[in-house]
Design goal:
The complex is a heterodimer of chains A (137) and B (203). By secondary structure, chain A is of the alpha/beta class. Helices cover 50% and strands 12% of the residues of chain A. Chain A has two domains: 30 residues; 98 residues, Oxidized Rhodanese, domain 1, CATH 3.40.250. Chain A has seven helices and five strands. Chain B has one domain: Rhodanese-like domain (Oxidized Rhodanese, domain 1, 3-Layer(aba) Sandwich). Chain B is 57% helix and 9% strand. Chain B contains ten helices and five strands. Chain B has a five-stranded parallel β-sheet. In chain B, helix 8 crosses helix 9. Chain B is elongated, with a radius of gyration of 23 Å. The termini of chain B are far apart. The chains are: A alpha/beta (137), B alpha/beta (203). At the A-B interface, helix 2, helix 3 and helix 7 of A face helix 1, helix 2, helix 5 and helix 7 of B.
Chain lengths: 137, 203
C-alpha cells in the first residue's frame, strides 16, 4: 500500500500510456499502424479473385454487392449482401464483415470502387478481404 | 521488495511492447476512415482521359502524371510527361520522395483502374490530398484518345474541339512512343524547355 502511494504518479502515467496504446491498437473504427503491411496483398495481386475461384471456395464466403452490379446477387444468391459503397463503414456493415468466418469478397462492375473500398477496409485491419474481378477484364 | 520487482517487470514488458509497435507516423494513415472513404469515392478524385488530353495539349505544368506500371511496360509505351514509379516502389518507399511538391496535381495511372485506385487511397490516407487517378488508365487512353475516329456526317463546334484535342494528344503520344528509349527523355525535356520559355521563365 505504501508502495502504491509512493509511486502513484508513475503508475497513473503508465496506466494512461497503456490505455492509449491499447485503444489505438485495437480500435476497430480506426486505421491500423503500418500502412505498408496492410496494403501488401495488393502488391502481389493475391487479393483479386476470379469468379471461378470464388465459386470453388467452400465454406462461409460473403460477397458484398456494392450496388452497381445487378448480376452479382443473381450469380451468388446464397452468400450475397448488398451494401452501398458510401455506407460500408456503418457499424452494422463492419460487424457483418468482421464476423464472417470465411473470405469477404467485394464485387462491383466498376473495379475502381471495389479497389478503393478494399484499401480503406484493409487499412482498418480487415483480413481475408478480396475483390471479385469483373468478367470483362 | 517483491512488489518493486513485479512493478519493474511490468515496466520492462511495457517497454518491449512499445519497442515492437511500428509507431512511424508517416507510414500509417492519418485520416479518419469515415472522412477518407467519401473523399476517395468522390468523382473529383478521378480525371477522364479527355481531361488528361487537355492538360497535355495545354502543356499544363501543374499536372504530374505518375505511371504505376512496371519499368518494362512503361518503356514500351507511356503517356507524355509521365514519370515511372512502379506500384510496389510507391507503396514500399516513403511517398514524400514522390509527392513532395504540394503545388502540383499528382495523377496516377496504370493499365486499368486497380493500382491507380489503390495508390490514390494510399496517398490520400497518408495526407497527400493533391493526388488523383485517371479513370480507365492506359487502356481507356488508347481506346478514346489514340484510336479516336470521327464517323458521323456533321460535327458540332464542341465535338470538333474535343476531337481536335484528342487528335493532338494522340499525336503527342504516338510521337513519343515511336522514339527509341534513349531519345524519349530528351524529347520530354525539350517539351518542358519550350513550355518554360512560353511561360516567360529564363533558362
Amino acid at each position: 500500500m505504501k508502495f502504491l502511494k509512493e509511486y502513484r504518479f508513475v503508475i497513473f502515467i503508465v496506466m494512461i500510456v497503456t490505455s492509449l496504446i491499447l485503444i489505438r491498437t485495437f480500435n476497430q473504427g480506426n486505421f491500423r499502424y503500418d500502412a505498408v503491411r496492410w496494403a501488401e496483398p495488393s502488391l502481389s495481386g493475391s487479393n483479386i479473385l476470379t469468379e471461378d475461384k470464388v465459386k470453388s471456395i467452400n465454406g462461409e464466403k460473403l460477397i458484398i454487392d456494392l450496388g452497381n452490379n445487378p448480376d452479382v446477387s443473381k450469380r451468388f444468391r446464397e452468400s450475397t449482401r448488398v451494401m452501398d459503397p458510401a455506407s460500408i463503414l456503418e457499424k452494422e456493415n463492419i460487424r457483418i464483415m468482421r464476423g464472417n468466418k470465411g473470405p469477404v469478397i467485394l464485387a462491383s462492375s466498376d473495379i475502381s470502387v471495389s479497389a478503393r473500398i478494399w484499401m480503406v477496409l484493409s487499412e482498418m485491419g480487415l483480413k481475408n478481404l478480396f475483390i471479385l474481378q469483373p468478367e470483362n477484364r | 521488495m517483491e512488489t518493486r520487482k513485479t512493478f519493474s517487470a511490468l515496466l520492462i514488458i511495457l517497454g518491449i511492447l512499445l519497442a515492437l509497435l511500428p509507431l512511424s507516423g508517416n507510414r500509417s494513415f492519418n485520416a479518419q476512415p469515415d472522412t477518407l472513404l467519401p473523399e476517395v469515392l468522390d468523382e473529383e478524385t478521378s480525371f477522364t482521359v479527355d481531361e488528361i488530353a487537355e492538360f497535355l495539349v495545354r502543356e499544363d505544368s501543374t499536372v504530374q502524371l505518375i505511371d504505376l506500371r512496371s519499368p518494362d511496360e512503361s518503356k514500351k509505351m507511356t503517356m507524355p510527361g509521365a514519370v515511372n514509379i512502379p506500384y510496389q516502389d510507391f507503396i514500399k518507399k516513403d511517398p514524400e520522395i514522390f509527392l513532395r511538391d504540394k503545388t502540383i496535381k499528382n495523377v496516377f495511372f496504370s493499365n486499368g483502374d486497380i493500382e491507380s485506385s489503390y495508390a490514390l487511397v494510399f496517398a490520400r490516407g497518408l495526407g497527400y490530398r493533391n493526388t488523383y487517378a485517371i479513370k480507365g488508365g492506359v487502356t481507356e487512353w488508347i481506346r478514346t484518345i489514340v484510336e479516336a475516329r470521327f464517323t458521323g456526317d456533321r460535327i458540332t463546334a464542341r465535338e470538333n474541339a474535343l476531337f481536335e484535342t484528342r487528335r493532338r494528344a494522340g499525336a503527342m503520344f504516338t510521337e513519343l512512343n515511336s522514339l527509341p528509349d534513349s531519345l524519349k527523355a530528351r524529347f520530354m525535356e525539350s517539351k518542358r524547355f519550350s513550355a518554360r520559355k512560353l511561360d516567360g521563365g529564363c533558362e
